[in-house]
Amino acid sequence: MKKGMIVEIRIEDMSSQGQGIGKADGFVVFVPGAVVGDLVRAEMTKVKKSYGFSRLVEIIKPSPYRFYDFDCEYLSKGCGGCQYGRLSYDAQLRLKEKQVREKLQRIAYIQDPQVKDIIGMKESDNEGNGTFRYRNKAQFHVSTGGVITRKGGVVENLGEPTVGFFRFKSHHVVDCEECCLQSPAAMAAANALRRFMEEDNITAWDPKWEKGLIRDLVVKTGFATKEVMAIVIINGNGIPNVQKLVSMMDEAVYDAGYYMESFVISVKKAGKSGRQLQAVNDIMGDKNIIVAGRPVIKDILGPLEFEISPASFYQVNPVQTKRLYDKVREYCGLKKHENFDVCSEGPAERHVILDLYCGVGSIGLYCADSAEMIIGIEAVKEAVVDANRNAVINGIVNARYICGKAEEVLPAYIGGKEEGTYDSEIAETVRKADIAILDPPRAGCKPQLLEAVAEAGVERIVYVSCDPATLARDIKFLLELGYEFKEVTPVDMFPWTGNIEAVVLLSKLHARRNEYRSGIKDEGDGSDSGGE
Ligand SMILES: C[S@@+](CC[C@H](N)C(=O)[O-])C[C@H]1O[C@@H](n2cnc3c(N)ncnc32)[C@H](O)[C@@H]1O
């Protein structure tokens, strides 16, 4: 295989970035623009030892799964947001199921994993918007516009500001005035920011010159409350004429049918290396300044209310979050939520549940009615404060939160190594835990955390993941630590994109746990489950 060669390829798979994947002469080739089922002609652009990249030349026979009605002009302009925008929704769901299965087979070495039907979105969801407008958090990048002073004092007008999303595998911002995945409030706020920058000649952050003011805009929307928080991430100490921007956004958001409850500036000073390809949560600055309104917005999920701060994580698709959390409850073995009353005085089941990577406490609080105690661990302080407040708002008294890295906090509490440096009452409760819910960021869990969970001896592990590869890696380790894989349910939290969410149930293998505890390294065959 050589660069410049024209090859014919049947597309059999797709990457999470939306590239078609097929084989030519046994050689794996990535073809951007092609979808599963296409027969294409492609020109090789880069050739490695066993795989290569190509440019789509011609679709010889289009796939029956091709979707032609995706109503977005920015997809063809290169916006990298909707990687699966050319694939029918049903085909997306099948592809995501397949990807979860394959990762478990290839990375966790589970031969025939029990993969339940993916929980997809329905047409009637989300006030009839179905698989569209499902995101309650928009993250816009802002690119150069206005005037800038170059090194040496040269003043240059950089042209129109752009507010939108990165092009596929690039930091080029595709200017988007409309996005069918975002809430109308988010688009109204983004368009107001662009207008403000144009009118007031406000610069955007230029990663090449490491100059300019506005870097990004995050808009959080409470779908149930219509409350909106706008967070403008800047390279500086403030925004000139910021009150004008606040009123422009406020008006635009109100016209879209929402209420701007909070306007925040997040300060992120220029680093030497300029803008890196950002992980979702790295977008925020180090210091958040509440310029107008309240420091939190509120949302409602099922029977619970949640307050969310600028720096706190909150699941982005509320309709699917409810379904995901219901699945978590089911995997925890808790009763259904139908007659849920969080304030009920009825006897709780005797579960002690560890809610690891708990964010604003949402999953644990969703399970609190069936627990003796919820212990949440979370690294972001604002989220821990939110979690405590959320427990209070909902009248939940059986939840405690610890701020710190889960991989440091849990081993300390389980091992009792630093007695005196932590709450011994909580430590005692942690050691009684019988269920652990793990919901880490994309990178997955650190081995120390998984070892501590196994050391705690919980009967069930419910692992929620947004990256099947790190999920499979961690499951492989948990199997070695004496747990048995039961089943996985993928949940489509991110229609039209290549992102996959999945929830896994693992249960303790009693004989093997004892071996693990006593340090005997007997492999066993896993058939000795004395389990549940
Ligand atoms: C995918 S979110 C899950 C949040 C929550 N369970 C929910 O459903 O909304 C992952 C959370 O882990 C937190 N986090 C990241 N690294 C962490 C660590 N090492 N220890 C504890 N929490 C961490 C993040 O701040 C974030 O709130």
TrEMBL record:
Organism domain of life: Bacteria
InterPro entries: MeTrfase_TrmA_AS (IPR030390), NA-bd_OB-fold (IPR012340), SAM-dependent_MTases_sf (IPR029063), TRAM_dom (IPR002792), U5_MeTrfase_fam (IPR010280)
Active-site residues (renumbered): C466
UniProt similarity note: Belongs to the class I-like SAM-binding methyltransferase superfamily. RNA M5U methyltransferase family.
GO BP term, pick one: rRNA base methylation
Signal peptide limits: none
GO molecular function: rRNA (uridine-C5-)-methyltransferase activity
Organism: Lentihominibacter hominis
Pfam families recorded: TRAM, tRNA_U5-meth_tr
Residue sites binding S-adenosyl-L-methionine per the record: Q315, Y357, E378, D439
Domain TRAM: 1-58
Keywords: Methyltransferase, S-adenosyl-L-methionine, Transferase
Protein name: 23S rRNA (Uracil(1939)-C(5))-methyltransferase RlmD
UniProt key word Transferase: yes
EC number: 2.1.1.190
